[in-house]
Design goal:
With about 190 residues, this protein is mainly alpha-helical. It has helices spanning about 20-25, 35-70, 70-90, 95-105, 110-135, 140-160, 165-190.
């Protein structure tokens, strides 16, 4: 250790680090870095959260492909048959009643929109998930924009549907974005995330 006078009087009363390599190491440490054990836990939570988004993406891709491969008439027929049987068993079946109303308004245009939306949404999300799990720097800012767009759309849809699931999805997306921002900062500073 050097005295404060050897450092030109800077930082009076505080010890001065003599080793230049140690001084540079401490100088370039990000202030947001938690202790190593905590960083490992944060990375594990990030990996699990992103993996869950990946599973959701696979479900969307499968559902989008299934919709493309199934005709509108067949879907309406299945829904109508199931709903009518359920209503015959229980007169006030809320789910069957709503599905029957959905089937009555389900058009070819809606069918094509849902198929395209699910498939494209799943593919975009899947590419981002792979990039994030492989720690590709391009995936982080892209995910901020895309997931932020998903949140905006989900909140827009909520204003019409009042479906609380959209709020929960938006909260989960915000959580993933916050973890991704943390991981991105560490990667940009070339620090291990786990």
């Amino acid at each position: 250790m050097l005295s404060d006078d050897a450092n030109g009087g800077v930082g009076r009363g505080a010890p001065v680090i003599a080793d230049l390599a140690t001084r540079e190491f401490l100088l370039f440490q990000p202030r947001c870095v938690a202790p190593p054990m905590q960083e490992k836990r944060i990375h594990q939570i990030f990996a699990v959260s992103v993996s869950l988004k990946g599973l959701h993406a696979l479900f969307e891709i499968a559902a989008g492909i299934a919709l493309y491969l199934t005709s509108t008439e067949k879907i309406v027929g299945w829904i109508s048959d199931w709903s009518n049987r359920a209503i015959a068993l229980e007169r006030h079946d809320w789910i069957a009643d709503h599905l029957l109303r959905f089937a009555e308004t389900f058009s070819v245009e809606k069918h094509d929109f849902y198929a395209f939306y699910l498939l494209s949404h799943g593919l975009v999300k899947g590419v981002l998930v792979i990039g994030l799990l492989k720690e590709k720097l391009w995936a982080y800012p892209a995910s901020f924009v895309v997931f932020g767009g998903f949140i905006a759309y989900q909140l827009y849809r909520y204003s019409f549907t009042h479906d609380f699931t959209l709020i929960l999805l938006s909260i989960f997306d915000l959580f993933v974005i916050a973890l991704a921002v943390h991981e991105y900062r560490l990667l940009r500073k070339h620090l291990p995330t786990h």
